[in-house]
Amino acid sequence: MCMSVLKKVFDQIDASWDEEVSFLQKLGRFPSTLGNEAGVQRFIANKYRELGLETDVFIPDVQKIVKTPGYGPHEMSYDGRPVVVGSWKTKGEPIGKSLILQGHIDVVSAEPTRLWDYDPWGSTIEGDRMYGRGVCDMKGGVAALIYAVQAVKSAGVELGADLIVQSVHEEEVTGNGAVATIAEGYKADACLIPEPFGPAAVSAQVGVLLMKVRVTGNGAHVLGASQAVNAIDKAYVLIEELKKYEHEINYVREKHPAFKDVDHPLNVTVGVIQGGDWASSVPSDCMFEVRIGFYPGIDPQEIIDEVKYRLMTAAAKDSWLRLVPPEITFYGHHAWGLDLDKDQEMFKCLERAHAKVYKDPMDYISITATVDTAAYNINGIPATCYGPVGENLHAPNEWVDLNSVKECTKVYAAYILDWCGVRNKQAFENNDEQLMEA
Fold first, then answer.
1. Residues 103, 141: contact at Cβ < 8 Å?
2. Residue 138 DSSP one-character state
C-alpha cells in the first residue's frame, strides 16, 4: 500500500473526528428498537447519498428471504422497516477484491430505565466515553465504518473493486436484515462487521436458537388454589430441566476446540417470562422465552429436536404436564455456529490493517454469542467482526470508548485500501515525488 495514500486518509479521519462523534451522538438518539428502525435508516440513507454512494432503500422481500440460508422465522411485518445499502462501484475491471462493510442499527430495549445514570437516548459524553443504549452495540462501529469510507473518498482515492456499505435491522432477533441483503444479490469477496468485541478478529462463534414455551394450567380464585394448577409453577418444572441441560452441555459433554479456554461457552438463558394477571388468581397461562447456544458444526435442527425431547420427557414425568403438554415453538435466530480458518486472506489483510494503528499483533477471539457473520459465511461470503471497546451491552449504562472508535475508523480505512486496492495509486506516488523535488 502506498504510504502517502494511507497518511492522507488518516489525516482525513483526524480532521473529521468531531463530525464523526457528532454523527454517532445523533445515531444514538434514535430509539431504534425492534420495529422502530425507519427513522435512523432514513438518516443513514441520507448520509450514504451525501457520500455519493448509489443508495438502495428496500423492504425485505419475505418470498426471497425464506429461501435464503440463514433465515430465521420472523413474527413482525417488515412494512415500513427498510434495509439500506450504499454501493461505491469501481471504474473498469477490478484490480482488487470486493468488500461489504455491514452494521446493524437495531438495539435492545433500555428498560428498566430507572437503573440508568444517564439518559439512554441522550448519547451523553463523559471523558472518553459515550453513554447510551446501542452506542456500543453497535452504532459506534456503524459510525466508524461510514467515516472510514468518507475519509477514503475525501482523500481522492479510486478503489480497485466494489465497496458495499450496509445498514441492517433484526440482528438482535432473526438475522434477517443481513439475509435480506444477500437475497437481493448484494455479495462480495469478504464482509467486515464492526461488532464491539474490541480490536480483535472473531474466528469462532456459537450457534443460537430462540424458543418460546407456553404452559397451560388450571386457574382459579385463590380460595380454590389447593385444587387448581398454577401455570407459573409448572413452567418451572421445564425451566429446571433447561438448567440441567445447560450444565450438561457445558461440563459433561466434550468441549469444542475453539472454546476450550472458555469456562461456560453455551448459555441457555430464560430471558422473558409472562404469567398471570392478578395476585389473587391462580394463573392459567405462562409463557417463557429462551435463548439456546450450541457449538459450531451442529445443525440447528439437531438442537431443536434435542431440546424438544428433553422438555417433553420432563413434562411426561409431571402429573399435570403429562395430560396438558407444553407448546414449544422456535422463532427468530436459527444461526449456525462458526469455526473459521485463520489462514484466510480476509484475516491476513485485517492483521495488516490492525498493524497500521496498533503496535501489538491482532488477537483472535471466540465469542459465546451469534452475530450477522453467520448469515454471510453460510452463504459463501467470508465474514468476521472487529470493533471498538465498550461495556454494559444489553444492560444499563451502556458505553463505548470514543478513542477506540477513532482507532477502528483508521483500521477500517486501511482494510478498505488494502483489500479493494487503489486504482489511482500512481497519482499519489507522483505527488510524493513532486513534494520531494520541491
1. yes
2. I
Q: Strands 54-58 and 129-131, how do they pair? A: unpaired
Q: What local confidence, expressed as pLDDT, does residue 436 receive?
A: 43
Using the structure block, give the residue that is written with the C-alpha cell 477513532.
406
Task: Using the Cα atoms of residue 400, residue 404, residue 409 and residue 411 in order, give the sign of their dihedral.
Answer: negative
Confidence of residue 304 (pLDDT cuts 50, 70, 90): very high
Mean residue pLDDT of the chain comes to 96
Q: Give the residue-averaged pLDDT of 72-98.
A: 97
pLDDT band of 1, cuts 50, 70, 90: low
Residue type at 221? H
Pairwise CA distance, residues 429 & 375, whole Å: 40
Residues with Cβ within 8 Å of 303's Cβ and at least 6 positions away in sequence, in order, are 207, 209, 292, 294
Please name the amino acid found at residue 225: A
Question: Which of helix, strand or coil describes residue 437?
Answer: helix
Residue 432: pLDDT band (50, 70, 90) is low
**Per-residue H/E/C for 202-225:** EEEECEEEEEEEEEECECEEHHHH
What is the distance between the alpha carbons of residues 154 and 170, in angstroms, rounded to a whole number? 32
Backbone angles phi, psi at 212, to 5 degrees: -115, 140
Is the CB of residue 124 less than 8 Å from the CB of residue 1? no
| CA gap 221, 223 in Å, rounded | 5
Rounded Cα–Cα distance for residues 138 and 119 (Å): 17
Residue 438 has pLDDT above 50, yes or no: no
Report the alpha-carbon angle 137-139-144, nearest 5: 120
CA distance 320 to 300: 30
Identity of the residue numbered 122: G
Which stretch of DSSP H or E encloses residue 360? none
d(C-alpha 361, C-alpha 149), whole Å: 24
pLDDT category at 227 given cuts 50, 70, 90 is: confident
340: which 3 cell numbers? 473459521
Residue 263 pLDDT exceeds 90: yes
CB atoms under 10 Å from CB of 239, counted, come to 18
Whether residue 94 contacts residue 186, with contact meaning beta carbons closer than 8 Å, is answered with no
For 427, the grid coordinates are 497519482
